[in-house]
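Researcher: Structure prediction, please.
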Amino acid sequence: MDQPKSTLAKFLQPALAVTLLTFAVMNGNALRVMHTYYAWGGADFKIYMTAANMIRDGHASDLYDLDRQRRSQQELYPLWQVGNDPLPYNHPAAEALLFLPFTHMESASAYYVFFAVDLLMLFAALHLARVAMPSWNVGTRLPLMLFALAFYPVIMCLFLGQDSILLLLLYALSFHVIRRDHLFVGGMILGLGCFKPHLVLPFALLFFVSRRRWNAAFGFFTGGAVVFLISLWLSGLEGLFGFLHLNLETQRYRTWLFNPHLMADLRGLVQSALAERMEYLWTQSIIMIISIIFLVWCILKLNRMAPIVKSHGSEENMKIEFVFCVIANVLLAYHVYQYDLSILLLPLLLLVEQCAANAKPGHLWVMIGTALFFLIPLQTAANTYQLYYLFSLDLLMMVVILSRWMHNNNEELCQSAFSTSTRQA
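Model: Predicted structure follows.
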Protein backbone atom coordinates (compact mmCIF):
# COMPACT_ATOMS: atom_id res chain seq x y z
CA MET A 1 0.00 0.00 0.00
CA ASP A 2 2.95 2.37 0.61
CA GLN A 3 4.47 1.88 -2.85
CA PRO A 4 2.13 4.22 -4.79
CA LYS A 5 2.67 6.91 -2.19
CA SER A 6 6.46 6.66 -2.42
CA THR A 7 6.27 6.59 -6.22
CA LEU A 8 4.16 9.74 -6.18
CA ALA A 9 6.61 11.41 -3.82
CA LYS A 10 9.51 10.48 -6.10
CA PHE A 11 7.67 12.10 -9.00
CA LEU A 12 6.54 15.23 -7.16
CA GLN A 13 9.92 16.13 -5.70
CA PRO A 14 11.79 16.62 -9.02
CA ALA A 15 8.69 18.28 -10.50
CA LEU A 16 8.67 20.74 -7.60
CA ALA A 17 12.40 21.35 -7.99
CA VAL A 18 12.05 22.06 -11.72
CA THR A 19 9.09 24.37 -11.11
CA LEU A 20 10.89 26.36 -8.42
CA LEU A 21 14.05 26.55 -10.51
CA THR A 22 12.04 27.81 -13.48
CA PHE A 23 10.48 30.57 -11.39
CA ALA A 24 13.89 31.48 -9.94
CA VAL A 25 15.33 31.80 -13.47
CA MET A 26 12.37 33.96 -14.48
CA ASN A 27 13.07 36.24 -11.54
CA GLY A 28 16.75 36.40 -12.40
CA ASN A 29 15.91 37.37 -15.97
CA ALA A 30 13.56 40.09 -14.71
CA LEU A 31 16.39 41.54 -12.64
CA ARG A 32 18.73 41.43 -15.65
CA VAL A 33 16.25 43.46 -17.66
CA MET A 34 15.23 45.93 -14.94
CA HIS A 35 18.29 46.41 -12.74
CA THR A 36 19.31 49.73 -14.34
CA TYR A 37 15.83 51.15 -13.82
CA TYR A 38 15.89 50.15 -10.14
CA ALA A 39 19.45 51.32 -9.49
CA TRP A 40 19.00 54.83 -10.89
CA GLY A 41 15.88 55.75 -8.97
CA GLY A 42 13.06 53.27 -9.66
CA ALA A 43 13.59 51.35 -6.40
CA ASP A 44 12.26 52.22 -2.95
CA PHE A 45 15.89 52.08 -1.80
CA LYS A 46 16.06 55.80 -2.53
CA ILE A 47 14.00 56.66 0.56
CA TYR A 48 16.69 55.17 2.82
CA MET A 49 19.43 56.93 0.88
CA THR A 50 17.48 60.18 1.17
CA ALA A 51 17.09 59.86 4.95
CA ALA A 52 20.69 58.77 5.53
CA ASN A 53 22.04 61.68 3.47
CA MET A 54 19.87 64.16 5.36
CA ILE A 55 21.20 62.85 8.68
CA ARG A 56 24.78 62.95 7.42
CA ASP A 57 24.31 66.55 6.28
CA GLY A 58 22.91 67.61 9.66
CA HIS A 59 19.21 67.84 8.73
CA ALA A 60 17.90 65.11 11.05
CA SER A 61 15.35 67.46 12.63
CA ASP A 62 13.90 68.08 9.15
CA LEU A 63 13.86 64.39 8.29
CA TYR A 64 10.10 64.33 7.65
CA ASP A 65 9.89 67.62 5.80
CA LEU A 66 8.74 66.68 2.29
CA ASP A 67 10.35 69.71 0.66
CA ARG A 68 13.70 68.89 2.21
CA GLN A 69 13.29 65.23 1.20
CA ARG A 70 12.46 66.30 -2.36
CA ARG A 71 15.64 68.37 -2.70
CA SER A 72 17.84 65.67 -1.21
CA GLN A 73 16.24 62.97 -3.37
CA GLN A 74 16.67 64.99 -6.55
CA GLU A 75 20.36 65.56 -5.79
CA LEU A 76 20.89 61.85 -5.21
CA TYR A 77 19.00 60.78 -8.33
CA PRO A 78 19.46 63.55 -10.92
CA LEU A 79 18.35 61.26 -13.76
CA TRP A 80 15.06 60.52 -11.99
CA GLN A 81 12.38 63.19 -12.14
CA VAL A 82 11.28 63.64 -8.54
CA GLY A 83 9.11 66.71 -9.12
CA ASN A 84 7.01 67.90 -6.19
CA ASP A 85 6.16 64.38 -5.01
CA PRO A 86 9.21 62.63 -3.58
CA LEU A 87 8.83 59.05 -2.44
CA PRO A 88 8.75 59.90 1.27
CA TYR A 89 10.83 58.39 4.02
CA ASN A 90 8.20 57.61 6.67
CA HIS A 91 10.09 55.17 8.93
CA PRO A 92 11.60 55.87 12.37
CA ALA A 93 14.80 57.89 12.17
CA ALA A 94 16.83 55.12 13.83
CA GLU A 95 16.58 52.92 10.75
CA ALA A 96 18.30 55.54 8.60
CA LEU A 97 21.49 55.00 10.63
CA LEU A 98 21.86 51.56 9.03
CA PHE A 99 22.21 53.22 5.64
CA LEU A 100 24.83 55.82 6.58
CA PRO A 101 27.69 53.68 5.16
CA PHE A 102 25.96 53.72 1.76
CA THR A 103 26.05 57.53 1.60
CA HIS A 104 29.75 57.32 0.76
CA MET A 105 28.92 55.53 -2.49
CA GLU A 106 27.36 56.65 -5.73
CA SER A 107 23.59 55.97 -5.60
CA ALA A 108 23.53 53.17 -8.18
CA SER A 109 26.53 51.44 -6.58
CA ALA A 110 24.84 51.70 -3.18
CA TYR A 111 21.78 49.93 -4.58
CA TYR A 112 23.87 46.99 -5.84
CA VAL A 113 25.80 46.72 -2.57
CA PHE A 114 22.57 46.73 -0.56
CA PHE A 115 21.21 44.06 -2.93
CA ALA A 116 24.21 41.89 -1.95
CA VAL A 117 23.63 42.67 1.75
CA ASP A 118 19.98 41.65 1.37
CA LEU A 119 21.10 38.32 -0.12
CA LEU A 120 23.47 37.73 2.80
CA MET A 121 20.67 38.45 5.28
CA LEU A 122 18.43 36.07 3.32
CA PHE A 123 21.08 33.32 3.55
CA ALA A 124 21.35 33.92 7.31
CA ALA A 125 17.57 33.76 7.78
CA LEU A 126 17.38 30.51 5.78
CA HIS A 127 20.20 28.99 7.83
CA LEU A 128 18.27 29.75 11.02
CA ALA A 129 15.13 28.33 9.41
CA ARG A 130 17.02 25.15 8.52
CA VAL A 131 18.11 24.74 12.15
CA ALA A 132 14.47 25.00 13.21
CA MET A 133 13.44 22.26 10.75
CA PRO A 134 15.39 19.10 11.60
CA SER A 135 12.95 16.91 9.68
CA TRP A 136 13.27 18.91 6.45
CA ASN A 137 15.35 16.21 4.72
CA VAL A 138 12.66 13.64 5.51
CA GLY A 139 10.21 15.62 3.40
CA THR A 140 11.27 17.80 0.49
CA ARG A 141 15.08 17.61 0.58
CA LEU A 142 15.21 20.71 -1.61
CA PRO A 143 17.51 23.69 -0.93
CA LEU A 144 15.75 26.41 1.01
CA MET A 145 17.29 29.08 -1.23
CA LEU A 146 15.37 27.58 -4.15
CA PHE A 147 12.13 28.32 -2.31
CA ALA A 148 13.32 31.82 -1.41
CA LEU A 149 14.27 32.76 -4.98
CA ALA A 150 10.86 31.58 -6.20
CA PHE A 151 9.01 33.51 -3.46
CA TYR A 152 7.47 36.59 -5.05
CA PRO A 153 7.53 38.86 -1.96
CA VAL A 154 11.25 38.19 -1.41
CA ILE A 155 12.03 38.91 -5.06
CA MET A 156 10.05 42.17 -4.91
CA CYS A 157 11.92 43.12 -1.74
CA LEU A 158 15.29 42.45 -3.41
CA PHE A 159 14.35 44.36 -6.56
CA LEU A 160 13.02 47.41 -4.69
CA GLY A 161 15.81 47.54 -2.13
CA GLN A 162 13.25 47.37 0.68
CA ASP A 163 14.02 46.50 4.30
CA SER A 164 11.63 43.57 4.79
CA ILE A 165 14.37 40.93 4.48
CA LEU A 166 16.01 42.54 7.50
CA LEU A 167 12.71 42.07 9.32
CA LEU A 168 12.59 38.44 8.12
CA LEU A 169 16.07 37.92 9.60
CA LEU A 170 14.97 39.43 12.93
CA TYR A 171 11.95 37.09 13.00
CA ALA A 172 14.15 34.08 12.23
CA LEU A 173 16.75 35.07 14.83
CA SER A 174 14.08 35.79 17.45
CA PHE A 175 12.40 32.42 16.89
CA HIS A 176 15.78 30.67 16.97
CA VAL A 177 16.63 32.23 20.35
CA ILE A 178 13.15 31.71 21.86
CA ARG A 179 13.27 28.01 20.96
CA ARG A 180 16.32 27.85 23.23
CA ASP A 181 14.37 29.45 26.08
CA HIS A 182 16.16 32.81 25.94
CA LEU A 183 12.87 34.67 25.95
CA PHE A 184 14.08 38.14 26.89
CA VAL A 185 16.76 38.20 24.20
CA GLY A 186 14.36 36.80 21.61
CA GLY A 187 11.79 39.44 22.43
CA MET A 188 14.39 42.22 22.34
CA ILE A 189 15.63 41.11 18.92
CA LEU A 190 12.13 41.30 17.50
CA GLY A 191 11.58 44.62 19.28
CA LEU A 192 14.36 46.06 17.12
CA GLY A 193 11.98 45.42 14.21
CA CYS A 194 9.86 48.35 15.38
CA PHE A 195 11.19 50.29 12.39
CA LYS A 196 8.04 48.68 10.93
CA PRO A 197 5.90 48.56 14.08
CA HIS A 198 2.74 47.40 12.32
CA LEU A 199 4.55 44.21 11.27
CA VAL A 200 5.72 43.24 14.77
CA LEU A 201 3.34 44.73 17.36
CA PRO A 202 0.34 42.41 16.68
CA PHE A 203 2.71 39.42 16.69
CA ALA A 204 4.16 40.47 20.06
CA LEU A 205 0.67 40.88 21.48
CA LEU A 206 -0.34 37.40 20.29
CA PHE A 207 2.83 35.33 20.68
CA PHE A 208 4.26 37.03 23.78
CA VAL A 209 1.51 38.72 25.78
CA SER A 210 -1.45 36.46 24.96
CA ARG A 211 0.66 33.34 25.64
CA ARG A 212 2.07 34.88 28.85
CA ARG A 213 5.67 34.87 27.72
CA TRP A 214 6.31 37.86 29.95
CA ASN A 215 10.10 37.84 29.65
CA ALA A 216 9.80 37.95 25.88
CA ALA A 217 7.22 40.75 26.12
CA PHE A 218 9.55 42.77 28.34
CA GLY A 219 12.41 42.14 25.94
CA PHE A 220 10.25 43.30 23.05
CA PHE A 221 9.40 46.49 24.94
CA THR A 222 13.13 47.04 25.55
CA GLY A 223 14.03 46.59 21.89
CA GLY A 224 11.22 48.88 20.81
CA ALA A 225 12.33 51.48 23.35
CA VAL A 226 15.85 51.40 21.89
CA VAL A 227 14.45 52.18 18.43
CA PHE A 228 12.27 54.97 19.82
CA LEU A 229 15.00 56.59 21.92
CA ILE A 230 17.56 56.53 19.11
CA SER A 231 14.99 58.07 16.78
CA LEU A 232 14.18 60.75 19.36
CA TRP A 233 17.88 61.47 19.89
CA LEU A 234 18.43 61.86 16.14
CA SER A 235 15.45 63.98 15.13
CA GLY A 236 14.27 65.47 18.43
CA LEU A 237 10.67 66.27 19.32
CA GLU A 238 10.27 68.20 16.07
CA GLY A 239 11.18 65.08 14.14
CA LEU A 240 8.86 62.94 16.26
CA PHE A 241 5.88 65.20 15.55
CA GLY A 242 6.93 65.36 11.90
CA PHE A 243 6.97 61.56 11.76
CA LEU A 244 3.43 61.33 13.18
CA HIS A 245 2.12 64.13 10.95
CA LEU A 246 3.65 62.69 7.78
CA ASN A 247 2.22 59.22 8.35
CA LEU A 248 -1.26 60.48 9.25
CA GLU A 249 -1.51 63.02 6.45
CA THR A 250 -0.14 60.86 3.66
CA GLN A 251 -2.71 58.16 4.43
CA ARG A 252 -5.45 60.67 3.75
CA TYR A 253 -4.13 63.07 1.12
CA ARG A 254 -1.53 61.10 -0.81
CA THR A 255 -3.52 57.97 -1.49
CA TRP A 256 -1.30 57.01 -4.44
CA LEU A 257 1.21 55.84 -1.82
CA PHE A 258 -1.29 53.44 -0.24
CA ASN A 259 -3.02 51.28 -2.83
CA PRO A 260 -5.28 48.84 -0.93
CA HIS A 261 -5.65 46.67 -4.03
CA LEU A 262 -2.01 45.65 -3.53
CA MET A 263 -2.35 44.83 0.19
CA ALA A 264 -2.96 41.22 1.22
CA ASP A 265 -4.46 42.12 4.60
CA LEU A 266 -7.84 42.93 6.14
CA ARG A 267 -7.49 46.57 5.16
CA GLY A 268 -6.81 45.66 1.53
CA LEU A 269 -9.78 43.30 1.42
CA VAL A 270 -12.28 45.65 3.07
CA GLN A 271 -11.14 48.89 1.46
CA SER A 272 -10.98 47.33 -2.01
CA ALA A 273 -14.57 46.16 -1.56
CA LEU A 274 -15.97 49.37 -0.04
CA ALA A 275 -13.81 52.26 -1.25
CA GLU A 276 -16.13 53.21 -4.11
CA ARG A 277 -19.31 52.73 -2.05
CA MET A 278 -18.49 54.53 1.20
CA GLU A 279 -16.66 57.62 2.40
CA TYR A 280 -13.07 57.30 3.58
CA LEU A 281 -13.75 57.70 7.31
CA TRP A 282 -16.56 55.14 7.27
CA THR A 283 -14.37 52.66 5.43
CA GLN A 284 -11.52 53.11 7.91
CA SER A 285 -13.92 52.68 10.83
CA ILE A 286 -15.18 49.38 9.43
CA ILE A 287 -11.59 48.23 8.88
CA MET A 288 -10.74 48.99 12.51
CA ILE A 289 -13.82 47.18 13.82
CA ILE A 290 -13.13 44.07 11.73
CA SER A 291 -9.45 44.12 12.74
CA ILE A 292 -10.35 44.32 16.44
CA ILE A 293 -12.83 41.44 16.10
CA PHE A 294 -10.21 39.35 14.32
CA LEU A 295 -7.58 40.19 16.93
CA VAL A 296 -9.92 39.18 19.78
CA TRP A 297 -10.72 35.92 17.97
CA CYS A 298 -7.00 35.14 17.64
CA ILE A 299 -6.40 35.90 21.32
CA LEU A 300 -9.28 33.62 22.34
CA LYS A 301 -7.90 30.80 20.19
CA LEU A 302 -4.47 31.17 21.76
CA ASN A 303 -5.79 31.48 25.32
CA ARG A 304 -7.49 28.10 25.02
CA MET A 305 -4.08 26.50 24.56
CA ALA A 306 -2.18 24.98 27.45
CA PRO A 307 1.16 26.63 28.32
CA ILE A 308 4.08 25.41 26.22
CA VAL A 309 6.25 23.09 28.32
CA LYS A 310 9.24 20.98 27.45
CA SER A 311 7.59 17.72 26.46
CA HIS A 312 7.06 15.53 23.47
CA GLY A 313 5.19 17.49 20.83
CA SER A 314 5.82 20.93 22.36
CA GLU A 315 8.26 21.85 19.56
CA GLU A 316 5.60 21.24 16.93
CA ASN A 317 3.06 23.24 18.92
CA MET A 318 5.38 26.21 19.20
CA LYS A 319 6.01 26.14 15.46
CA ILE A 320 2.29 26.13 14.68
CA GLU A 321 1.71 28.95 17.17
CA PHE A 322 4.50 30.97 15.57
CA VAL A 323 3.11 30.44 12.06
CA PHE A 324 -0.40 31.32 13.24
CA CYS A 325 0.77 34.56 14.89
CA VAL A 326 2.92 35.74 11.96
CA ILE A 327 0.09 35.21 9.45
CA ALA A 328 -2.38 36.89 11.82
CA ASN A 329 0.04 39.83 12.12
CA VAL A 330 0.13 40.23 8.34
CA LEU A 331 -3.66 40.29 8.19
CA LEU A 332 -3.81 42.87 11.00
CA ALA A 333 -1.05 45.08 9.59
CA TYR A 334 -2.65 48.27 8.35
CA HIS A 335 -0.06 48.88 5.64
CA VAL A 336 1.45 45.82 3.97
CA TYR A 337 2.68 45.62 0.40
CA GLN A 338 3.92 42.55 -1.45
CA TYR A 339 7.53 42.95 -0.34
CA ASP A 340 6.41 43.09 3.31
CA LEU A 341 5.14 39.54 2.93
CA SER A 342 8.80 38.46 2.91
CA ILE A 343 8.32 37.74 6.62
CA LEU A 344 5.97 34.92 5.57
CA LEU A 345 8.84 32.92 4.08
CA LEU A 346 9.86 31.45 7.45
CA PRO A 347 6.34 30.42 8.59
CA LEU A 348 5.48 29.01 5.17
CA LEU A 349 8.64 26.89 5.15
CA LEU A 350 7.74 25.65 8.63
CA LEU A 351 4.30 24.71 7.28
CA VAL A 352 5.86 22.79 4.38
CA GLU A 353 8.00 20.87 6.86
CA GLN A 354 5.05 20.09 9.14
CA CYS A 355 2.84 18.97 6.24
CA ALA A 356 5.62 16.77 4.84
CA ALA A 357 6.22 15.14 8.23
CA ASN A 358 2.62 14.71 9.46
CA ALA A 359 -0.70 14.35 7.69
CA LYS A 360 -3.32 16.59 9.31
CA PRO A 361 -6.91 17.67 8.61
CA GLY A 362 -6.79 20.53 6.14
CA HIS A 363 -3.28 19.51 5.07
CA LEU A 364 -4.13 19.78 1.35
CA TRP A 365 -5.69 23.25 1.68
CA VAL A 366 -2.69 24.54 3.61
CA MET A 367 -0.35 23.24 0.93
CA ILE A 368 -2.45 24.86 -1.79
CA GLY A 369 -2.53 28.12 0.15
CA THR A 370 1.25 27.99 0.53
CA ALA A 371 1.81 27.12 -3.13
CA LEU A 372 -0.10 30.19 -4.29
CA PHE A 373 2.67 32.41 -2.94
CA PHE A 374 5.29 30.56 -4.99
CA LEU A 375 3.42 30.68 -8.30
CA ILE A 376 5.19 33.60 -9.95
CA PRO A 377 2.79 33.92 -12.93
CA LEU A 378 -0.21 34.10 -10.56
CA GLN A 379 1.56 36.58 -8.30
CA THR A 380 2.61 38.88 -11.13
CA ALA A 381 -0.87 38.74 -12.67
CA ALA A 382 -2.49 39.64 -9.34
CA ASN A 383 -0.05 42.52 -9.01
CA THR A 384 -0.55 43.75 -12.58
CA TYR A 385 -4.34 43.68 -12.43
CA GLN A 386 -4.39 45.01 -8.85
CA LEU A 387 -6.08 41.96 -7.36
CA TYR A 388 -3.38 41.23 -4.83
CA TYR A 389 -5.74 41.91 -1.93
CA LEU A 390 -7.44 38.59 -2.72
CA PHE A 391 -4.45 36.81 -1.20
CA SER A 392 -5.84 37.95 2.16
CA LEU A 393 -8.56 35.31 1.67
CA ASP A 394 -5.82 32.70 1.27
CA LEU A 395 -4.21 33.85 4.52
CA LEU A 396 -7.56 33.85 6.33
CA MET A 397 -8.18 30.27 5.25
CA MET A 398 -4.77 29.23 6.55
CA VAL A 399 -5.34 30.96 9.90
CA VAL A 400 -8.64 29.14 10.40
CA ILE A 401 -7.05 25.76 9.61
CA LEU A 402 -4.07 26.49 11.85
CA SER A 403 -6.39 27.37 14.73
CA ARG A 404 -7.87 23.89 14.38
CA TRP A 405 -4.40 22.34 14.30
CA MET A 406 -3.47 24.13 17.52
CA HIS A 407 -6.66 22.92 19.18
CA ASN A 408 -6.05 19.30 18.17
CA ASN A 409 -2.38 19.40 19.17
CA ASN A 410 -3.31 20.93 22.51
CA GLU A 411 -5.79 18.13 23.23
CA GLU A 412 -3.18 15.50 22.35
CA LEU A 413 -0.59 17.11 24.62
CA CYS A 414 -3.07 17.37 27.49
CA GLN A 415 -4.07 13.71 27.11
CA SER A 416 -0.40 12.71 26.96
CA ALA A 417 0.37 14.71 30.10
CA PHE A 418 -2.64 13.18 31.90
CA SER A 419 -1.59 9.65 30.92
CA THR A 420 2.00 10.29 32.12
CA SER A 421 0.85 11.67 35.49
CA THR A 422 -1.57 8.73 35.92
CA ARG A 423 1.22 6.20 35.28
CA GLN A 424 3.51 8.00 37.72
CA ALA A 425 0.76 7.99 40.36
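Model: DSSP finds 19 helices and no strands in the chain.
Researcher: Thanks, that helps.
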